[in-house]
Amino acid sequence: MKDSLLLPALPDTPVAVSAVAYVRSCESEPTANHSIRSYVFAALLAEHEGLKPGADFDPDLLFHACVLHDLGTSSAAPGAERFEVEGADMAARFLTGHGYDAQAVDLVWEAIALHATPGIAERRGVLAYLTRRGIGVDFGIGAEFMTDAQGAAVHHEHPRLDMVTALVDEIVRHAARSPQAGARYTLGGEFLRERAEPGATTFLERVASTSRWGA
Question: Which of 75, 128, 162, 176 has a CA that sits 20 to 30 A from residue 169's CA?
Answer without folding.
Answer: 128
